[in-house]
Amino acid sequence: MYTQAMSIGPQDQAAKLQTAEEQQREEAFEARVAEGDFIEAKDWMPEHYRKTLVRQISQHAHSEIVGMLPEGNWITRAPTLKRKAILLAKVQDEGGHGLYLYSAAETLGTSRDQMLDALHTGKAKYSSIFNYPTLTWADIGVIGWLVDGAAIMNQVPLCRCSYGPYARAMIRICREESFHQRQGYESLLVMMREGTDAQKAMVQDAVNRWWWPSLMMFGPADKDSPNSEQSMRWGIKRLTNDELRQKFVDATVPQAELLGVTLPDAALQWNAERDHYDFGAIDWNEFWRVVGGNGPCNTERLAARVKAWDEGEWVREAALAHARKRATAAQAA
Ligand code: FAQ
Question: Is pLDDT above 60 for 8?
Fold first, then answer.
């Protein structure tokens, strides 16, 4: 009688061989990453690496397009034509960033439709910061200064991410974000230097509301960040959440002083021993509440994206019909 054991033998051997081959490929992959090589779309990569990238890049892409909403809210109410033109260009840039990033994620085998479906059904995350409301015009300047400032701090190291398509997308995105940050800071400088007392108070109020959520953009503390360790090992992230948050605080305090605003943190002070600013405790309950869907604007933001998707169906259909027509014409020629 043939036993199970006998029939399992060759399969087992094949499995072992496959494992050895897999292991070799994985070692070669790790070595390339350690040497600072870029991994490209057609290269072999561990499944977990692929999944981690799709998770992070799609979350990043969603953040860019949801991030258009709080600022888009002020396009019709910008105080001058110049500010309106700048804001329009900025919001359009964010849409472009989303598109580069969806394209980068698509090279990993996940379609844009799949990613958007995950966003629209509430399965995918996007940055917590975009669930806060933009109550006054000063919020637009503060988003440029603090939110784009935090985004740049987080994203410059991503230009050296081990996955080539993501790293290359980030180079262009960072250049544009840098302009965004400067225009925000400049608009606040104008209000603080030439504005009325009421305008100065409006800037301070916006800083009070956006400071802590901006610090939360960097993600949970390292000890509570389940993805950081592996992402650092694979060269996806180059600095940890806490390292980036500290760099942001250190860079921003002198900017606040120059601007003449007070950052809303009584514990904020220079620590000569550490050569860094100390800062107060972040309200992680608030962070997780917002990430979990219960921030001030989560429902509104998601509803706006779903509405845009539904109302854009005819555009997608028309674009596809046009592409089919062109392909048929090209074949006939
Ligand atoms: N909000 O283990 P970690 C911008 C999630 S773009 C929501 O530390 P990881 C431009 C995280 O996904 C701003 N969720 O995760 C702009 C994970 O959940 P998961 C966005 C957050 O990936 C400006 C869980 O918590 N930038 O501002 C947040 O290693 C103005 C555990 O966290 C990027 O996305 C958060 N703040 O590190 C546009 C940059 N933090 O996925 C318009 C790329 C963490 O396991 C206007 N992303 N979570 O279910 C990254 O660098 C990383 O993904 C981190 C998180 C640093 C955000």
Answer: no
